[in-house]
Each structure stands twice: as C-alpha cells, then as structure tokens.
Write the structure tokens for this entry.
Amino acid sequence: MITIKDHYPVIDQTIQQVKDRFGSDSKIAVMFENCISNTLQTTIKVLDDGSIFVITGDIPAMWLRDSACQLRPFLFFAKEDPEIADIISGLIQKQMQCIQIDPYANAFNECANGNCWEHDKTDMKPELWERKFEIDSLCFPVQLSYLFWKNTGYTAHFTMDWLKSAKTIISVFRTEQDHEHKSPYTFERMNCVPTDTLSRNGKGALVKSNIGLIWSGFRPSDDSCTYGYLIPSNMLASVILENISEIAEQIYHDSVLAAEAHQFSSDLRKAIESLSIVPGQSKEFYAYEIDGFGEYNIMDDANLPSLLSLPYIGYCDRKDGRYLNTREIILSDRNPYYYAGACAKGIGSPHTPARYIWHIGLAMQALTTTSAKEREQLLDTLTHTDAGTDLMHEAFLVDDPAQYTRPWFSWANSVFCELILDCCGYHLEM
C-alpha cells in the first residue's frame, strides 16, 4: 500500500542542491522547499484501490490537467525512489479510470459522491465535479504517462485500461473534428457569466467542420472558447498522439494503432501549421483560437497549454522562428491579457481580474526563454511577488502583489519547482 511520507531522501538531496546553487537562506531555496513539500503533503490522497487522487488546491476535486502538471516535477525523483514512482503510477491509474467514466469531463470527485461545481445541463454523473470538455484534459495524462516511461523506464502503468483510454481519446478527437454534425456533447450552466457556459443551446462555438483541427468547448482556464479551434490545445494533441503511437508500437506491439496515431498527429500538425497563422502580418505567428471561417483570436492565456508554453509541451524548439514571433506578440500589448504595472509584468487570463498576472505564466516565460538575463529577471519577480507566503498563487495584481487570488494553488507551486530544477540542470527527456 502506498503511503505519503513527510520526507523522501532523493527530494531532501535535491533541496540541498537548490540551497547549494542559490544559497541556503535564499528566497528561492526557501520557496522551493515549501512548494515541493506543499504538493506532497496537502494534495495527494491514496485511495482504497491503490490509485492516487490529487486535488488542485482549495477545491476538493481532481482536474486531469492540473493533477498531471502537479506531479510532473516528481518525475525527476521517480527513477531513484520507487515509492515516488508508485505515486505517479497511481495517479495515472486514476486518470485513466476517470477518462473511462467520461472523456468529456475535466474534473472528477474522489468517488461517486454526487458533489459538483454546479448542477449543469449536460450528461452529468455522480463521479463528475464538472463536465467542461477541454482537449488538454485528455492530453496531459497521456503526456505524463509517456514522460514517466521515457525518464524512468517504468512500464507497469501501461495496462489494458490505459490502452482502452488511449483509443477512447483518439475516438473523441475524431468525433470533435466534426463537432457540428457528430458530437453528442453539449453543456449549459444557468445564471452564470457567459464564459461559464456554451452558446447555441450548449452546442458551443460554431466552427468550419472537417478541416483537420479538433474542437474544444473550453480553454484550460475552464472559460469557454471564443472560437472553437483552440490552437495550443490542438498542438498538445498532436504531441500526445505521437506519444500514443510510440507507446503502441514499443509497449503494446500494436502496429495498427501506432500507424493510426502517427498519421493523426501528422495530419493535425499540418492543419495547425497551415490554418492557424494569422494572415496579413509582417512576421508569421500563431493565433490562440480560430473558427476556420476566417476569424482569428490574437491573445494568450497563462493557463497551460498556452502559446507561450509550446517548447514546454514538446511542440517545438525554443528557437523555432514561428514560436519566437508568437512569443514577441503575446509578451506585448497586442495580447489583451498582457499587463505591466509598478511591481511586475506578464500574462494573465480573462479567468481572473484585469491587471492580474499569473505565477504560472511567469515561470513558463522563464522556462522557455533563451535569455539568461530574462530568466534572472523573472526569478527575481517570482520571489518578490509571493506576498510573503513563500508559495505561488494563481494571480496577483501587477501594482500590488499582496492582492492575489487562490492562496493555495498547487499547480503554480509545481511549475515554479520545475523552473528551479531546470536552473539546477534537471531536464526531462521529451
């Protein structure tokens, strides 16, 4: 039976490495130790079947995306510590169970207790906390599974249930390439802000069907898409379809599935590269969303996957030309959710108040930069905008970091930890 311990030798050794790198009493070292410990000690629960349930922080539910991102830094420790490997494997087990319950849901309860965010008009089940369809909810568990294998050599998590879930993911993606005519999914929330529900009686944003892209109802922020083809999530989908192809070939010896996933990934990437470039610009850069009819949304959101995070999710290299052009746009006032103030500047989200930027966005900007100077400046910003808590938050006011949202937000803590590990020479094989 898995037990969650207060200390793991390999993590304690890494904490010491961070202290050696930045100074024992440095703010970075203190924050790293607090953030890595916070995820372990406050968000992880071992269930009776040995699976792992990971709450996102101050909400008693597990998001498929958040939980994968929360445990991603622990991949660095799993090869040396079988107990940490068991925690990650247990989470993957639970995630695949969730996908089989409902591949259109984004957040799940610990059990079939009927808890939920709202009593929405959709095909709810007692296991679901929320049923907002977000492409990335299906992507991140696959990527965590792949990275776990590639960086530790573990394969026990690749069960028949995992294979069934992978096939389910491909089927849903195929369906959502023609959302208008083939999808059974609808979602409506009553008496809410417009971004918390879908238009057209729950059908959502109208897109041009069968152009190669996958429709998404909601963004990683859980806000509804303005245009239904969410480009960063399609990019992540192309990455994980290639992951599935490699896993199918090497682990399951299923050449048919391997070929199908590889071709799907290739076709999806071609559609992204041909359709998501904003026309009429002096430099080629990616839109955040499109509809296939000619509408483009020029913006970025700090939630992952984002346009800023493309090298992090494995879509392209940090020096890729289109990525660098896009980065220049989204880190400027051309992005309506880029804010600069007296204390900080960075990317926020329509999910949080105006002029609030996200610690996840700042950490991601540092993780994806090619500039040592920019990274140093961002580390300084991160360590001076915690409002004295020695933890990361969801979002904070650029003019006053003491005004912030969600004091307990494990996902942000984990991205910060991955940044510090990256500074210390820890890099994942993608």
